[in-house]
Amino acid sequence: MPTSPLIRLGTRRSPLAMVQAQEARARLCAAHGWGESQVELVPVVASGDKVLDRPLAEIGGKALWTRELDQWLVDGRIDMAVHSMKDVETLRPVAIAIGAILPRADKADRLLGAASLADIPQGAKVGTSAPRRAAQLLNLRPDVEVVGIRGNVATRMAKLDAGEADATFLASAGLDRLGEDAVGVRLDPELWLPAPAQAAIGIECRSDDTRVLDLLAAIDHAPSRAEVMAERRLLEGLGGGCSSPIAALSETSGGEIHLRAAIFSADGAVRVVDEVRFETGDDAAPLALASRLLAAAPPEVRKLFEGPA
Ligand SMILES: NCc1[nH]cc(CCC(=O)O)c1CC(=O)O
């Protein structure tokens, strides 16, 4: 057995990021018959973890989750980087490739602090900094007050306990991975659409690193990749980032994908929803869905999106 690690796997330092990195390491080791020491976890601080007092959309968007890990990857300080695909920008540097998407976890959001959306008290403060969650909530419950809340999962749960908000949302996937499976109530993803690429872990590498690309191909989960790529393609077509209220849900069955998506006005008053079924690999279908959503949206919603790049 070689003593030096074969692979340096970069990750953010939050507890959820570390759990996801451990899952990535376990899958790599299982697929290749390695001992755990063959993959060294390399925690890297992301800008997004440093600025916690303002919404992500205001301070630079999803790049704040990827900038440092991208740099470490391109410099060769790490060989792979693990990400929540929900946090990864649609347009990636050409030098970086998504080598594997792991089997996706539960795509649903969970509501904390109330037994259901209808049970949130009139006028209650609901904490979320995600434009999608804010708009989707106000669409259903225009009476509540949305307040900003940021930080990692534990921080947000603590802020809820401290009374900063009466209720909040968290991704089921993150809670489950942290062992918090009894927290909150699951919102049916058919009725409360999740974020594009929610619950998916992706592992990136250098585009020209064929050795690592081959290692990652062995743990890639094809149906999860097909869904995540379709949802990312929709985002690309909408020209949306983390500042745009976009929700999407896709399901694969056989070789077919069913993709549903909604866009909202920031205040939730407008909701445009549409869906499409297509064969895996049909890159045009999610773009066509994006065009239809934009065409059906009133001008004040359309202007929240920059349009296809
Ligand atoms: N935006 C932060 C973020 N990025 C990924 C997850 C959860 C895990 C996932 O969706 O894969 C979360 C926390 C949340 O939204 O509750």
Automatic annotation (TrEMBL):
Catalytic activity: 4 porphobilinogen + H2O = hydroxymethylbilane + 4 NH4(+)
Record carries keyword Mitochondrion: no
Gene, per the UniProt record: hemC
Co-factor requirement: dipyrromethane
Keyword Ribonucleoprotein part of the UniProt annotation: no
Domain Porphobilinogen deaminase N-terminal residue range list: 7-213
Note: The porphobilinogen subunits are added to the dipyrromethane group.
PROSITE patterns membership: PORPHOBILINOGEN_DEAM (PS00533)
Stated family: Belongs to the HMBS family.
Subunit (UniProt): Monomer.
InterPro entries assigned: HemC (IPR000860), Porphobilin_deaminase_cofac_BS (IPR022419), Porphobilin_deaminase_N (IPR022417), Porphobilinogen_deaminase_C (IPR022418), Porphobilinogen_deaminase_C_sf (IPR036803)
Job of this protein: Tetrapolymerization of the monopyrrole PBG into the hydroxymethylbilane pre-uroporphyrinogen in several discrete steps.
Keyword annotations of the record: Porphyrin biosynthesis, Transferase
Catalytic EC class: transferase
Molecular function as annotated in GO: hydroxymethylbilane synthase activity
Coiled coil: none
The organism of origin for this protein: Erythrobacter mangrovi
GO biological process, one term: protoporphyrinogen IX biosynthetic process
Descriptive protein name: Porphobilinogen deaminase
EC number: 2.5.1.61
Record text on cofactor binding: Binds 1 dipyrromethane group covalently.
Residues bearing the modification S-(dipyrrolylmethanemethyl)cysteine: C242
UniProt domain Porphobilinogen deaminase C-terminal: residue ranges: 227-280
